[in-house]
Amino acid sequence: MTHTPRPHANTPRPADARDAPGCRLYLITPPAFDLAPFADRLRAALAGGDVACLQLRLKGASDAEVLAAAAALTPICREHDVAFLVNDRPDLAAAAGADGVHIGQDDAPYAAARATVGTGAIVGVTCHDSRHLAMIAADAGADYVAFGAFFPTATKDPKTTAEPALLAWWSAIVEVPCVAIGGITPANCAPLVAAGADFVAASAAVWTDPGGPGAAVAAFNRAIAAARDSQPQRS
Questions:
Q1: What is the pLDDT of residue 21?
Q2: Separation CA 96–CA 78 (nearest Å)
């Protein structure tokens, strides 16, 4: 299999993530949605092609709403061998039995998040455009770091902007996988893949695609493959 941020128990992790081929799609939910229709949209998205994981990002939702969404969406992810992550809240990730949590710089510290979700779970950390923050997260044991935003995005108000050179620097010297995030589409992801992103994150580009989420995921897979195949093979 190709690498994913530490996958759930049914999917063994490669001994060396950097030896696994290519880049994969990291899906993020819309910040709000009606659960039943969205579950159908998620099934359509995951039927469209390879997806590494789904991050549940429900801003402003109650704990009960987050847990209800997790209960409905986790089985769909399991059926497609897709890791399921909760944004911001290690406590809810643990309560939901999620595969892990994604934390920002203003959320729980890494050590507290790890203690809450356990050693076998994924903990990913937002590092904006900062090499320093990424090194701190990697040294602490983060399973991946996320850089961005690489492009303008309407999904959230990014605090920083990042350049593909950051991904190239990171991938050249650090084993911990990196996620590129922010305004990424099938049309603009190639430079990020070429620079060394292990994952490209997408939200609006998938959920608002006029052809539907399955077509969007398929388009991402084609774009990622084309960018990967155009690069020199690693020795």
A1: 55
A2: 14
